[in-house]
Amino acid sequence: MLVSRLLEYVGLEPGRFEMRWISASEGGKVAETVREMTERIRKLGPNRKMRDER
Amino acid sequence: MKQAVEELRRQAAGLLKEERVKCVIGWTQGTDVARAVPFFATSVRQAARLTWTPFCVNNLSKYLLNHRYDNTPLAVVVKGCDSRGINRLVQDRQFVRERVVVLGLPCGGMLDREKVLRVVDPGAALQEVEDRGSEYMLRTDKGEYGFEKREALLSKCLECEHNIPVVSDLMIGPQVPSPAGSGIDRFAGVRELETRDPAVRSTFWDRHFARCLRCYACRNVCPACNCKECSFEQAVPGWQQGACWLSKRNHPGQNYLFHLIRMFHVAGRCIDCGECARVCPVNIPLRELYRKVMKDAEELFAMKTPGTDPEEVPLLSTYRTDDPEEFS
Q: Which domain does B70 fall in, by range?
């Protein structure tokens, strides 16, 4: 809770960071969560913050 | 404040004379009128050089760490905000409470040096300071100056939570009213930033962190930063640095991570003394960063400012079964 609030405070778009609690036995839920999140992040576009260009 | 200064010197001299302590950590007048510097009095004669002015901003609790591995009995002078640092260091088992004599000074607020120097000649000699409640009178050899507290105090003082030390063995000088106005919102600055657009916040911190020199002054001055070996100072050869959390390179992205990692290392331990923001050579508003977690901790978990209570358990070391949660 503190992490997500802080990341939004320093300028990360709401929704880019998410924490979920999923048991190792819930394979379907993992896949579904990841798919959902990938879609959401694709809409937000590539992350520009904290990038390490070399 | 004259009375408090005299009492401070007398008590310090007494402690040193009776050999109850080897050193009294306090402040002395610095090189200009609006500067007080840390001072380590080890003899009765030196104790007479201790001072107490509205420029004694340094949080001296950090200096106790210099003696964490020996058994030197020490005395340290603290203001209200610094006194939370004593509680925190004792909670972190950095030293035993009995070894330190804490001299507490009720504080009417610290003046902003920049604002004072706009009016007063830096070369003037400070003779006497009088706390008149809503203003300070500075008597120097070049005239008298009055400073309205609401105008000239440091912003942290106008949001002061404890102007009377929360822990002390000897309270020195008369009680003074808190410089904070009644009904003041301590987290107004944080709340203001929170209401902005994420993109605005992003630019705000980008600009500040890009200027960071990675000098680590914020860490060095911080009483919450008491690790023997710092995670930012690990000896890692250059070719391995990519595998680390973060390199020592001064780069905007890396600086971001540095500040966020430090932020989480001091979460629940930061006492809000404001020293990090004061010592920052490029004026990054670090207090607004650390206070964000403090505010959330207060709102979500009803945590008091760290160091308020000697018995408390730090934020990230405890839980209750009825803590709010957002996991699904």
A: 2-171
| Same domain? B163 vs B18 | yes
The amino acid sitting at A1 is M
pLDDT digits (tens, 9 = 90+) for B61-111: 999 999 988 889 999 999 999 999 999 999 999 989 999 999 999 999 999
Looking at the structure, tell me whether residues B230 and B123 fall in a common domain.
Answer: no
Nearest residue in chain B measured CA to CA from A22: B328
C-alpha distance from A54 to closest chain B C-alpha (Å):
10
Asked whether residue B151 is assigned to any structural domain, the reply reads yes
Measure the CA angle with vertex B286, ends B162 and B295; round to 5°.
55
Residue among A3, A7, A52 minimizing CB distance to B254:
A52
Domain boundary among B109, B142, B171: B171
Scan for tokens 């340094």, then name that residue.
B58
In three-state form (DSSP H/G/I as H, E/B as E, the rest C), the secondary structure along B251-283 is CHHHHHHHHHHHHHHCCCCCCCCCHHHHHCCCC
pLDDT digits (tens, 9 = 90+) for B163-216: 999 999 999 989 999 998 777 888 988 999 999 988 899 999 999 999 999 999
**Contact: A6, B293; criterion CB under 8 Å:** yes
**Quick check: A50 and B257 CB within 8 A?**
yes
Closest CA to A20 of A10, A7, A31: A31
CB contact under 8 A, A21 and B263: no
